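The data are passed on as follows:
___
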Amino acid sequence: YVGYELANYSIEQEQRNTQVMSGTIAHAQAENQRLNQSLSQIAVELALQQSAQTLVEESYGELLAENQSLQQKIALYELVLGESEAAGPFAIHSISVMALPESQHFLLDMLLLQGRALKSLINGNLVINLIGTQDEQPRTYALEDLLANSVFIGNTDTSMRYRYQYFLEKQFVFALPDGFIPQQLEINTDVYQWKRKRDSFTQQFTWSELIAPNT
């Protein structure tokens, strides 16, 4: 009988120990779950903070770019306002030619300005001619007939027409015919305000002065 009681006592003790251990394990599991939830919450908060910081940095970068663009526009407006009162409605502020990696391909870049004589939209067509020699004979080519495509320069102009107020950039990719040696570039245009002709413009440039260095 004593042995039986001892056996029952041992079983009851084991059951109590098991219950204590089960409670401890359950408590540990609950604590672990709580810690995991806290870690997840912290991770979400960090991700939100990083996202907010990224947005702030991107917004700051966009503001800087926008400010730089505005400064450039202001500088161009100042150029326009600095034009002489006697200047006509059409002017070429800058012009250059750059050789492209493709054989005989070039990029013509022009910045057109509007003089102070007229403060409204102007329009017209550019007549650009390349004057030089070919086979030792004088030869003139219309730039419009030499327009080409380039894998290095995209989104260039394909029309000689212009319509703008204050300033306009025009870029043309063109290919010179084999054997043609350019010497001058001539630009002509009749300037209109709506349908009314306001001015005629002609200007010649020396090819050697237009071509960019090291090209």
Observations:
- The chain has two domains: 1-81, 91-210.
- The mean pLDDT is 80.
- The beta strands are 91-99, 105-113, 122-125, 127-134, 137-142, 161-164, 167-175, 180-193, 196-206.
